[in-house]
Amino acid sequence: MKILVCTLLFSLISILFQTGTAMAEEIQSLRGSVGVDEESEMIPNRRTMAVDGGIDVNYEDQPPLIPHSIDKTRITLDENSCLGCHSKENQKITNAVRPPKSHYRTREGKKLRQITTGRYFCTQCHVPQAYTKPLVNNDFKN
Questions:
Q1: What is the residue range of 112's domain?
Q2: Rounded to whole angstroms, what are the CA distances from 74 to 42, 65, 117, 118?
Q3: Which of 40, 61, 90, 126 is the most exposed place for a label (fewest CB within 10 A)?
Q4: In sequence order, which residues have a C-beta less than 8 Å from that of residue 24 and are 6 or more positions away?
Q5: 109 lies in a domain?
Q6: How many helices (H) does the chain have, and how many strands (E)?
């Protein structure tokens, strides 16, 4: 009896594995037929949306979208060019959106004079928009 159960279980696992492998072969990446280890053609830069007054968010707590080009923006360990306009000090001069107070607090809630390290790399959350066709249809409703 045990041998029969083990044989059936092994057969079932084998069938599932083969089916999973066949399904995985049908999936194609956004790179198309270009392999991961191959060099692909560079995607042309899309024209970035420039929107006065910003871009509306689609849901609560969504990081605001960047309404301007960031082609020349540099964010490294030593430099964050976003803060050239968006820091507390420069925001009054440039009239740029100021980062919220949460960006000036540690995880423990301690207030800082500078942006906390967890929020320093702006483009982790904030992204520009470009004039492109969607990759997939989206029927999201808030």
A1: 47-132
A2: 20, 17, 16, 17
A3: 61
A4: none
A5: yes
A6: 3, 0
Distance CA 45, CA 79 (A): 24
Residue 100 lies in a domain: yes
| Number of domains observed in the structure of the chain | 1
Looking up residue 62, the CATH number of its domain turns out to be 1.10.1130.10
* Residue showing tokens 């037929």: 33
Which of 91, 100, 93 lies closest to 122 in space, CA to CA? 100
> 92-129: per-residue pLDDT in tens?
898 888 888 889 999 999 999 989 988 999 999 998 88
pTM of the model: 0.58
Q: How far from each other are the two terminal CA atoms of the chain, in whole angstroms?
A: 55
**Could you tell me if 96 and 84 are in contact, meaning their C-beta atoms sit under 8 angstroms apart?**
no
Q: How far apart (Å, rounded) are the C-alpha atoms in residues 116 and 102? A: 9
Given a contact cutoff of 8 angstroms between Cβ atoms, the answer to whether 65 and 124 are in contact is no
Token pair, residue 107, equals 């995880």
24 belongs to a structural domain: no
Distances (CA, A) of 89 to 11, 53, 97, 98: 68, 20, 12, 9
* Cα separation, 103 vs 73, whole angstroms: 19
- Tell whether 95 is covered by a domain: yes
Q: Bridge partners of 75?
A: 80
